[in-house]
Amino acid sequence: MVNKIISSGKRKRAVARAVFEEGTGKVWINQKDYKLFHIFDKLKIEEPLRIAEKVLGKLNFNADINVIGGGSKGQIEAARVALAKGMVVFTKSDELEKSLLEYDRNLLVADVRRKEVRKPGAGKARTRRQKSYR
Q: The domain 5-63+70-107 is classified under which CATH number: 3.40.50.720, 3.10.490.10, 3.30.230.10, 2.120.10.30?
């Protein structure tokens, strides 16, 4: 029997779904190895992996993450949340969960902020029309 765990993560409009299986520590995001991403995006995704390596030693899973919606940075953040949540469930490690929360709470708890809705009569969500006295 293959041990499979599914986890999800959200950021703004981006939604990520991660599937974890037994393996050697490989991570793919939308069928691409995360190491091929831009340096800052790669480092963002590596954060939970590095913490897990420090706590657990060698990683014994592969993660295949599928992200839809949102922009590129939102997708990276959503994938990061899905990866961290899935690692905790897959490894069943309380120590890993504690160290992830200590490092950055947003690794396990999704950031629920969304873009504010644009109101009629204005260009953006909070701007108002200029008032004229003459």
A: 3.30.230.10
The reported pTM is: 0.87
Buried b (16+ CB within 10 A) or exposed e, 94-108: eebbebbeeeeebbb
- pLDDT (tens place) for every residue of the chain, 134 residues total: 568 999 999 999 999 999 999 988 899 999 999 999 999 999 999 999 999 999 988 888 999 999 999 999 999 999 999 999 999 999 898 999 999 999 999 999 988 998 899 988 888 999 888 888 98
